[in-house]
Design a protein that fits this description.
Elements: E1 2-6, H1 11-27, E2 32-37, H2 42-45, E3 53-56, H3 62-75, E4 79-82, H4 87-95, E5 100-104, E6 115-117, H5 128-137, H6 157-169, E7 177-182, H7 194-207, E8 211-216, H8 222-234, E9 244-245, H9 252-260, E10 264-268, H10 271-276, E11 283-287, H11 292-295, E12 305-309, H12 329-332, H13 336-361
Parallel strand pairs: 1-2, 1-4, 2-3, 4-5, 5-6, 7-8, 7-10, 8-9, 10-11, 11-12
Helix pairs in contact: 1-5, 3-4, 6-9, 7-8, 7-13
Length: 362
């Protein structure tokens, strides 16, 4: 049996499909599972042990999509599941020619599937993983708990080696507690103010002598990490300034390896947050226009996660197309003090868990 899975982008959304991959492998242990994804999010599933094949589709172009469609059709898939639902994903799913094609009943595109699943257009207080699992239930796979099917992204050995070399070159030792602070997001609706990040970074270094804050950002905001680090250093005495680091950009595989070595991850509701969720690192997650109930880290409930929200606002949650008030108040209402308090709780809880695990190992 051949199964095609389609989720072209974004990074977090691709992460959210990984519980379904594990469920599909258990339900169809001998099937050949192929995942179709665009280049940016491909590292998320590139080494997933549940998959037999990953097809990386270049960004949309009519001729290349037609050629890809013929390739999919020639493969002879028995089942195709479109986790995406966008125009391109729907078309490629239809191109596959699979006799059973499962997707959302989206107006204008539902006809491309042989089995359609309702997807209300309003924003629902329901997690994205559960929404995607509706497609599995349509083929007889029952929903499961997060601690059974958590998000997954294996650590790449080469990336881990590269990260280890970079940390050593930066002067970090085994006694240093690494705090990863991701300060950018592809969506401006999810960018907490840089000065707020800087204030939290400086406070954590000032309070914890063993803390080393590594400020990261995405390729679209490479200068953001530098600005946050510079501003944080300016708030610290000279001898502590080297404890705030802004290194060169990390690839997604390297970021996954980095958070595996961290004592804490702090970031907004974007792809890197959900990459962090595939590890056991304590997380402080910032939610402006989005809600934790829809996009909280999907992992074992025993792992430490501290959400910090923008509060009750008439405009929250929103569709993230236009800020109606015009001032992104859902983000600016998140105070550095609230994030710092959440970070302290997460660090303390993480240490307690580490201590407990150490006693169990003994």
């Amino acid at each position: 049996m051949r199964i095609l899975l389609v989720r072209l982008r974004e990074i977090g959304d691709v992460v959210f499909t990984t519980p379904a991959l594990r469920a599909l492998r258990q339900h169809f242990p001998h099937a050949h599972l192929t995942y179709l994804v665009e280049p940016l999010a491909a590292p998320i599933v590139g080494s997933n042990p549940r998959l037999d094949e990953v097809i990386v589709a270049p960004r949309a172009h009519l001729l290349s999509d037609i050629a890809l469609g013929w390739r999919l059709r020639a493969t002879g898939y028995d089942l195709a599941i479109d986790f995406h639902g966008g125009p391109r994903a729907s078309l490629l799913t239809w191109f596959s020619g699979a006799p059973l094609r499962v997707g959302y009943d989206v107006p204008g595109r539902g006809w491309m599937y042989t089995r359609r699943v309702a997807r209300p257009r309003m924003i629902r207080p329901r997690h994205a993983v559960q929404n995607q699992w509706d497609l599995l239930e349509a083929i007889g796979i029952a929903a499961e708990r997060a601690d059974t099917f958590a998000v997954e992204m294996p650590v790449d050995a080469a990336a881990a080696s590269t990260v280890a070399d970079r940390l050593h070159a930066a002067g970090l030792g085994s006694g240093d507690r690494i705090i990863v602070m991701h300060v950018s997001a592809g969506n401006p609706f999810r960018r907490w103010p840089q000065q707020s990040f800087a204030e939290v970074a400086a406070a954590l270094v000032a309070r914890h002598g063993d803390a080393r804050v590594i400020v990261t950002s995405g390729p679209s905001e490479r200068e953001a990490a530098g600005r946050v680090a510079d501003e944080a250093r300016a708030q610290l005495p000279t001898e502590s300034r080297r404890h705030v680091l802004s290194t060169a950009e990390y690839s997604l595989a390297e970021l996954r390896a980095l958070v595996d070595r961290a004592a804490l991850f702090i970031g907004g509701d974007s792809g890197p947050l959900h990459i962090a969720a595939t590890s056991e690192v304590p997380i402080v997650a910032l939610y402006g226009p989005t809600l934790p109930v829809r996009s909280a880290p999907w992992r074992d409930a025993s792992l430490v996660t501290e959400p910090v929200e923008g509060g009750d606002l008439e405009c929250r949650p929103c569709d993230q197309r236009t800020c109606v008030p015009g001032d992104f108040r859902c983000l600016t209402r998140i105070s550095p003090a609230a994030v710092l308090a959440a970070a302290e709780r997460a660090l303390a809880r993480g240490r307690k868990i580490d201590a407990c695990n150490s006693r169990l190992e003994v």
